[in-house]
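Feature request, filed as a ticket because there's no other form

It would be nice if the structure record came with a short human-readable summary line next to the tokens. Right now we just get the raw output. Example of a typical job, pasted below so the devs can see what we mean:
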Amino acid sequence: MSQREWIEKDFYKDLGVSSDATADEIKKAYRKLARDLHPDANPGDASAEERFKAVSEANAVLSDSAKRKEYDEARRLFASGGFGRGAYPPGAEYTTGGGGFGGGEFNIGDLFGGGASYTTTGGDGGIGDLFGGLFGRGGAGRGTATSSRPQRGSDVEAQTTLPFRDAALGVTVPLRLTSPASCTTCHGSGAKPGTSPRVCPNCNGSGIVSRNQGAFGFSEPCDDCRGTGSIIDDPCTDCHGTGVQNRSRSITVRIPPGVSDGQKIRLAGQGEAGLRGAPSGDLYVTVNVKADKVFGRNGDDLTVTVPVSYGELVLGTTLSVPTLEGRVGVKVPPGTVDGRTLRVRGRGVHKRGGGAGDLLVTVKVAVPQNLDDSATEALRTYLEAEKASGFDPRADWAGA
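Raw output as currently delivered:
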């Protein structure tokens, strides 16, 4: 695919979003389309498979802020005629020819609006740099053809849901993924087993060809090898020469202790396979944590509310409180007020750098709903004694 063809693609239309869509809107649109169009959900449907490839390609560009910025800028310039209606192909590397521009410098800032001065004598900062990140290569020096970088595989996103305690302590979980992966038949080369790709004779393996037009020379991806630098005469029958095929695989993911709800875990190289042996993308696993009936969380601190009786707060007691790793005794001093929080050091959620947060124990009085006659009479006797001692719970309250 030429750079012009790439720029003319409307990735926003492929995903069904506007050009000013937020990253979350793009993510939601891609997830829905990928789920609806996935080959596993549409067996034998070639049209759905092509749409699946198109939305995957669109997401690979629009979900990457740097690639999206370059893509938007390239489309803006292309639409405005900034490339001279084909006279100066997008992504071409410009050098001066044999005259007409004196010292070999030419101000083409008007093409980009803002008056930036671009020189054509080599080095960084040329037009090629604008498209370098988008098309997998940086700007080249004067008149030189640089090798195309292999097209890295796209990143893949997955989700897993964990119980609260597993998330706090860490756990290993299996994941089942269906995504483009390195072809097991040709091992990613794209060539039929027993054969190998050959060096493209047109670009000598660089993936780039140079030609002159008027006073300018520019380089662009080689049409014969599509910028890969190699030609496959006998393609692999399973992947049709791409080196990639959709397949399901199971992987084991280690979730570190202390992961929080919504946190992403990155697994380098576990995403989509790159074309023809290029590096694979990464896998990002979003962890959803279920709420727990006993524990809560405040940062690295573990929280728990323990029901107690009025007498236990007045006289003091020692409570047996659960933690993530067994139980611990918590001393409640005499005269503790309802709702007080007691801190137990180092019994909370494990931290990334080592150590753990604290356990925060909040005591809350449980009021009995049914008392027998002896308990009721004892309580009345206590209230009389309490009143006789001069205790008034509402003294100095609300102007009393």
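Something like this underneath would help us a lot:
Residues 82-148 have pLDDT under 50 and may be disordered.
Residues 152-190+235-291 form a domain with the HSP40/DNAj peptide-binding domain fold (CATH 2.60.260.20).
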